[in-house]
Amino acid sequence: MKPKSQRLIILFFFISLLSLSTFLVLKSLEDNIVYFYSPTDINKKILSNNIDLSKKIRIGGLVKENSILKEGKKISFKIHDGIDEILVTYNGILPDLFREKQGIVALGKIENKNFSAIEILAKHDENYMPKEVSDMLKKNGKWKGK
Amino acid sequence: MINYLANPNRFLNFIKPIEFSLGFLSFLFIFIGLYLSLFNSPEDYQQGDTVRIMYIHVPFAWFASFLYFSISIASIFFLIWKHPFADIIARSIAPLGLIFSILTILTGSLWGKPMWGAWWVWDARLTSMLILCIFYFAYIGISNAFPRKIDGSKPAAILAIVGMINLPIIKFSVDWWNTLHQPASIIRFDGPSINQEMLIPLVLMLLGFLFMSIFVILINIKTNLIFKKYQSELIKIG
Q: Do A35 and B121 touch (CB under 8 A)?
């Protein structure tokens, strides 16, 4: 075999093995790579007791409509992912984008099946459009998002 | 064509006439693109004026990844066909890619604070982009680590190929895992989810960055070739 094709084969195997090992590492670390869990994930974890309640975790989902309750600086609201929902309580500054139907990510701990957050981040989605367009879509009833 | 241009002298002759037009095109596209994105494009319905950071953040991010891809392709050519010119091309791309990856993170950070409420989060997209930036540092470091520059070429090329695994991770991180970073807006199955009035300045900026990257890399290649020639002349003279 020519040394050139030998090098080609070695490199091919090198890249394949490297991809495979990277895939296995990422697959096994999946639970740690995700930035947040959905309410469904959380409820599944609570049911199967597969969660350390003393550890801080992040949960994410959409803020449920008509679920925001404000009492002074304290706020509570529900977030959902279309299947499950979880009640979040928070005491602090909310990001500007916080509102109903907005995707948010909260950091905190689970206390009696509710989530007590110490930090809330807004999640922006992939839709970019001018205000006039979004107003028009809302007027025509074609609005799907927030 | 590739074989023909792989000769440094022919390559230098080939780029001489197109160099100026590349520089001119990059200036033109970036100038118009910046004007449109900063002054003549609509505010976003959610982000307001902050959306304008996107017009430079996205080109930085795309070309940081794309230039790394080019480095690894050049490195594969260097390792298999042992062509020294492939090594020079890879070395000439690296500094620009490093700058792009740093600026991706900086501009993203400036956008993240007002929108998310955080400068930095350890989600999969941001972390894989940071890893790309570190790979650029490592590549430049290793390729220049030896007294005889050429001794660093092989280890650096292997490193570049290892880092190539990171590229699909960057691209698909937002689909594979829950991330705070938003999913893709332009390259997606159901077409771009970005309004046309905002897409046009972005596409102009992307074209401008393409021409600018080629322009800067050609100058780097030229410099590296001249430097190499100079060194071999020195050796000849003794």
A: yes
| Residues present in chain A in total | 146
Using CA atoms of B85, B222, B140, B64 in order, give the dihedral in degrees to the nearest 10: -100
Residues of A in contact with B118 (CB under 8 A): 121
The chain A residue lying nearest B50, using CA atoms, is A128
Which B-chain residues 179-198 have CB contacts (< 8 A) with chain A? Answer: 179-180, 182-185, 188, 193-195, 197-198
Is the sign of the CA dihedral A91, A96, A100, A101 positive or negative?
negative
Please tell me the pTM assigned to this model: 0.90
Q: How far apart are CA A59 and CA A40, in angstroms?
A: 10
Task: Look up the ipTM and state it.
Answer: 0.84
Q: Which residues of A touch B121 (CB under 8 A)?
A: 35, 121
As given in the structure block, the two tokens for residue B203 are 């596409």
List, as one string, the DSSP characters of B124-165: HHHHHHHHHHHHHHHHHHHHT-SSSGGGGHHHHHHHHHHHHT
Looking at residue B116, what DSSP letter applies? T
pLDDT in tens, B106-159: 999 999 988 888 899 999 999 999 999 999 999 999 999 998 888 999 999 999
Alpha-carbon torsion angle A132, A134, A138, A139, nearest 10: 20
* pLDDT tens, position by position, B64-114: 999 999 999 999 999 998 888 999 999 999 999 999 999 999 999 999 988
Kindly list the domain boundaries of chain B, sorted by start residue: 52-179+192-224
* Token pair listed for A46: 């609570």
